[in-house]
Specification:
Distance between the termini of chain A: 38 Å
Shape of chain A: globular
Low-confidence stretches of chain A: 241-259
Number of domains of chain A: 2
Shape of chain B: globular
Radius of gyration of chain A: 18 Å
Strand content of chain A: 15-25%
Largest interface: A-B, 35 and 24 residues
Number of strands of chain A: 10
Helix content of chain B: over 70%
CATH superfamily of the largest domain in chain A: P-loop containing nucleotide triphosphate hydrolases
Number of helices of chain B: 15
CATH class of the largest domain in chain A: Alpha Beta
Number of strands of chain B: 2
Strand content of chain B: under 5%
Distance between the termini of chain B: 19 Å
Oligomer: heterodimer
Helix content of chain A: 25-40%
Order of helices and strands of chain B: HHHHHHEHHHHEHHHHH
Strand order of the largest sheet of chain A: 6-7-8-3-9-10
Structural class of chain A: alpha/beta
């Protein structure tokens, strides 16, 4: 058993001249919750896509449980135990919620009845059992995000990569979602999340990494990071130094409203 | 989700219902002819539906696989005197192989671009069939001599052909039902809905598409074999004319309800007899009028039944029998 579950060594992604991700290193240990924050356009999602295999890095290396996975396609990484959600959720809208989760469950169990039973268990776990027969296209935004977490959970992943899974949710929905993730973490699941909502970051993460213009600019505990001068400057520019971390929150939460 | 037994019962009952017209029309050669063709086209539309409907890969090149079944069967009979019963499955396997080879590069294309590429394959095959007359008989075509007998798959009675075509459609629907309840079937649906989400769920998108295409082409080539033995004459325009073959499979599935199990059959049951009647009634009055009427019908279907006959039925059932809790 490796001490590090997911390791990134100086990964870069260049689009023509633009360095979207510039030599970012990161490691996630088993059972940890690591958050990636940063202003819009900082390269968070691009960085995520390097981890999940959606994009190939220009240079650098990605390792999962000690093995280089740079050249593995997304589906092979899912098989290794990496579950992910998308910034813009991607429900399979013509299928029911149950069938959506079955798509995930089939990875480990081919027989229909086994996959269906496991999918049902996962739906219960995320509190969506009563919506099992609802078409995914008829679900609310919050339910769709929950469904996407459920589909990824059905893969029986070792690590969950969540890309702004709280975006567009209201206060009480965010509360429920945090509760859900904390429950999963208590059962031993590792998390790497991109999050705009600093309330979530504070409540949920053990370690925070800050990206700005493709570079890794700070890393530390949630409290340290959210009060650090460099981070506030990255988000708001110069001239906000005296105000402290808490004022940052409403502005950033508002930014997260995109869907 | 229905249990396996219930699904099996539904399948057997609907197939019994679908076979009923053979019994009712047993003395009517004209209608038995139309019926046999309806079963065949229903089976071919259902075979197309596996990759086109479940997998969402809108192939217009299925005429190629159909023609492989047709030509290879004809050559086996004419040159070597092989029974079509024996050659049918190996030929279908060859068509599946060809399907995978030409799909491999084509599956990089998405949506309309994939459709256009498959269309191009059909047209290239048309030209090749005209050119290589040592294999295809060129524009003159191939004629299979009439030697009635079960081993030759050539029958004296129309109802025997109707029964043969019915067996084909029952097979294709059986495969569809099985697929729709298997992992591969679900994976095809996932690929159709969202390829990125499918990949994130551990699905090898290309492999799933290739398998779906192989099954679809296999069944389509079997249809080509039956078609050849039924008509006993094939030539390039019969096998490659898009509105009659490649596009027709897709069209029947669309009108009936794409991606559903019953859809392709309902589409064929509606269009094929209607088309034949129109041709018989109208072609003499004004050549082409039958096609104009058929075209109008399809435009209306496209405007008012976007989810096909199956979709229209479902909407009607929801409207009349409640289920008010669910949004449409």
């Amino acid at each position: 058993m490796s001490q590090v579950m997911l390791q990134v060594k100086a990964a870069s992604k260049h689009f023509l001249g633009l360095k979207a991700v510039d030599e970012v290193s990161l490691s996630v240990r088993p059972g940890e919750i690591v958050s990636i924050i940063g202003p819009n356009g900082a390269g968070k999602t691009t960085f995520f896509n390097l981890l999940t295999g959606q994009l190939a890095p220009t240079s650098g290396e990605v390792l999962f449980e000690g093995k280089a996975i740079n050249h593995l396609p997304p589906h092979a990484r899912a098989r290794l135990g990496m579950g992910r959600t998308f910034q813009i959720s991607k429900p399979l809208i013509a299928l029911t919620a149950l069938e959506n989760v079955m798509i995930g469950a089939f990875l480990r169990d081919a027989p229909l009845s086994v996959a269906r039973d496991k999918a049902m268990v996962v739906l219960e776990k995320v509190g969506m059992a009563r919506l099992a027969m609802r078409r995914a296209g008829d679900l609310t935004l919050s339910e769709r995000r929950r469904l996407e977490v459920a589909r990824a959970l059905a893969l029986q992943p070792k690590i969950m990569l969540l890309d702004e899974v709280m975006a567009g949710l209201n206060q009480s929905e965010v509360g429920q979602a945090i509760e859900l993730l904390q429950g999963l973490h208590a059962q031993g699941l590792t998390f790497l999340i991109i999050e705009h909502n600093l309330k979530v970051v504070r409540a949920f993460s053990e370690r925070v990494v800050v990206l700005d213009r493709g570079r890794h600019i700070a890393e530390g505990s949630a409290d340290d990071i959210l009060n650090s001068a460099a981070v506030i400057q990255a988000y708001l520019g110069d001239g906000h130094m005296g105000k402290g971390g808490t004022d940052v929150q409403p502005t950033l939460a508002a930014k997260g409203e995109r869907t | 989700m229905a249990s396996t037994n219930k699904v099996l019962m539904t399948y057997l009952l609907s197939m019994a219902l679908a076979a009923l017209p053979i019994v009712l029309l047993v003395d009517d050669a004209h209608w038995l002819n139309i019926l046999a063709f309806t079963y065949l086209m229903g089976g071919l539309a259902a075979a197309w539906n596996i990759i086109g409907g479940f997998g969402g890969q809108f192939s217009l090149g299925h005429g190629v696989f159909f023609a492989i079944g047709a030509y290879m069967t004809a050559q086996g009979v004419i040159r070597f005197g092989w029974s079509p019963w024996l050659t049918m499955l190996p030929i279908a396997a060859a068509a599946a192989l060809v399907a995978m080879l030409i799909s491999w590069p084509t599956f990089r294309l998405r949506g309309p671009f994939f459709a256009i590429a498959t269309l191009a394959f059909n047209e290239v095959a048309f030209v090749l069939a005209n050119h290589f007359d040592s294999f295809t008989g060129g524009p003159r075509g191939l004629m299979i001599p009439f030697k009635a007998g079960f081993a030759n798959m050539i029958f004296r009675e129309r109802w025997q052909y109707a029964l043969l075509m019915f067996a084909f459609v029952a097979l294709v629907v059986g495969v569809s039902v099985w697929l729709r309840r298997s992992r591969l079937g679900y994976y095809l649906l996932a690929v159709r809905e969202d390829e990125d989400a499918a990949r994130a769920s551990g699905i090898n998108v290309l492999a799933v598409k290739l398998r779906g295409m192989a099954i679809s082409a296999f069944l389509t080539a079997m249809g080509g074999t039956l078609f050849t033995m039924y008509l006993r004459y094939i030539d390039p325009p019969t096998l490659f004319t898009l509105p009659e073959v490649g596009v027709k499979f897709a069209l029947l599935a669309l009108i009936g309800g794409i991606g559903t199990i019953a859809g392709p059959l309902l589409g064929a049951a509606l269009i094929i007899p209607f088309e034949n009647t129109l041709r018989a009634e109208m072609a003499n009055a004004l050549p082409g009028l039958n096609l104009a009427v058929l075209g109008l019908l399809m435009v209306l279907a496209a405007l008012f039944m976007k989810r096909g006959i199956v979709g229209a039925f479902e909407d009607a059932r929801k409207r009349w029998f409640g289920k008010t809790g669910d949004k449409p």
